[in-house]
Design goal:
heterodimer, A: about 100 residues, alpha/beta, 2 helices, elongated, B: about 350 residues, alpha+beta, 2 domains, four-stranded mixed β-sheet, 12 helices, about 15% strand
Chain lengths: ~100, ~350
């Protein structure tokens, strides 16, 4: 025998978005004349794309320079590297899907 | 509690469909996390809902006790499991576990949870026959709770942020106990400095299971066969000679070794030596990445892990000395342990 249930079920949201604004930095804004950093973790796909990416950033956005920083494959950046990137660059791409 | 509330009119199936369509689930049915169920979970651990347990990558979502409890209810955990879930969250968010990499990699890796200590018996966590498979609520739901937290708190939906090319079934849940009472050796937590009376959860970043039918009577033959299965140089460990390969011996195999005077340390040493692969066995042609062994000389040895001590050995499963399970490792990760406390210190 089947019974119909039309109750109202109230449940709590399991999602916990990051709302800590302290983790965010201001947008870099205009890229013209800026130095852009790229962290690459050794995937040859980046080697193939990196030069093209730099060309696009130079031609379309007028960056002054793109600096590439190598980190070991599938590893976090070595100690001190991110600090170096902060010192040397105005903006940086620190994570890419391979 | 501060979490938003959703309302669904209908039965539990309608609630599941609602949660599935909002992207809250792993695809399997979930228990609706009602306020009373979540409060029961929190109460079981004696923890306040706003206690911050961890920050979960990649999103950096704050794992408050409330959010973790919500996900534990959804997974089907009983309230008394919650201290284990809390400890597991702490273990996987230890920086050395590299949860960011585990969450977002193309590799199929997921957390493998090994439970030690008295809590195994108290919660009916299977450490015996079929312990890696279906059948026990604690094994199934504790591992699943962690997966749901990784999804909902870490912000890592499969295919979108979780880039696993194939994934593996163990990403739904992978949790078992060590068969300490049937083992001739110190269990994993005692090897790591805990007292036998303490309970712990160990998180290992595992890629799945490789079964090895090694029904030899001589221990050396068993380790030779197990090492041959581990010496698959396509495993991530060989990329950088890093990680913690995990070998699960049945009580039968453990007894076979112990009766012949073999310690875990001797087994680790034999496995480590036998998993070295000469560079010349691996093609030298171009790869998409640059493994550490790329420029090695032909006879130079490629390593599965840094040293013998990095190999984890635990005893679990049915009693027969037939099958060994090898859990290959993600590589750029280290195992992490946390103590399970019945009343959680905040």
């Amino acid at each position: 025998m089947e019974t119909q249930s039309r109750q109202t079920i109230e449940y709590l949201d399991p999602v916990s978005p990051n709302t800590d604004k302290k983790l965010f930095v201001p947008a870099v804004g205009e890229l013209k004349g800026k130095t852009l950093g790229f962290l690459t973790n050794g995937w040859s796909s980046y080697n193939a794309m990196g030069a093209r990416i730099e060309q696009v950033f130079r031609e379309r956005f007028g960056i002054r320079e793109m600096r590439t920083y190598a980190i070991p494959t599938s590893c976090a950046p070595p100690a001190g590297l991110l600090e170096r990137v902060i010192d040397e660059c105005d903006a940086a791409v620190v994570g890419m899907a391979n | 509690m501060v979490s938003a509330k959703f309302r669904v009119t209908g039965d539990f199936g309608a609630a599941f469909t609602d949660m599935y369509e909002r992207g809250f689930t792993d695809g399997l049915p979930v228990i609706p996390p009602t306020e009373s169920a979540v409060l029961a979970m929190l109460d079981a651990a004696g923890i306040q809902p706003d206690a911050l347990l961890a920050v979960v990558p990649p999103e950096g979502g704050p794992a408050t006790a409330e959010k973790v409890a919500i996900n534990a209810v959804m997974a089907g955990c009983l309230p008394e499991y919650f201290p284990v879930v809390i400890a597991a969250m702490r273990a996987i968010t230890d920086p050395k576990f590299n949860l960011l990499g585990v969450q977002t990699t193309t590799n199929p890796v997921g957390p493998v949870l090994i439970i030690n200590g008295p809590v195994r018996k108290q919660l009916d966590i299977n450490s015996g026959r079929g312990c890696l498979g279906p059948g026990r609520r604690a094994n199934a739901t504790i591992g699943r709770a962690i997966r749901l937290c990784m999804l909902n708190i870490g912000g890592c939906p499969p295919g979108d942020v979780d880039k696993a090319i194939h994934g593996m079934p163990g990403k739904l849940t992978f949790c078992f106990g060590e068969a300490e009472e049937e083992s001739p050796w110190d269990p994993l937590h005692v090897e790591n400095g805990y007292a036998r009376e303490q309970s712990t959860v160990t998180a290992v970043a595992g890629q799945g299971t490789q079964n090895i039918y090694a029904a030899f009577l001589d221990p050396l033959d068993v380790v030779t066969m197990v090492a041959d299965a581990m010496a698959c140089y396509g495993n991530n460990g060989y990329l950088r000679a890093l990680g913690n390969p995990l070998v699960i011996f049945s009580p039968g195999h453990a007894t076979l070794f112990a009766d012949a005077g073999w310690s875990k340390q001797r087994i680790r040493g034999e496995l480590f030596e036998r998993t070295k692969v000469p560079r010349k066995r691996i093609p030298r042609t171009a790869q998409l990445s640059k493994p550490i062994y790329t420029d090695y000389a032909d006879d130079e040895m490629c390593l599965l892990c840094p040293d013998a001590d990095s190999i984890l050995i635990v005893v679990a499963g049915g009693p027969e000395a037939y099958h060994v399970t090898y859990v290959p490792n993600f590589g750029t990760t280290l195992y992490s342990m946390a103590e399970i406390k019945s009343r959680v210190t905040q």
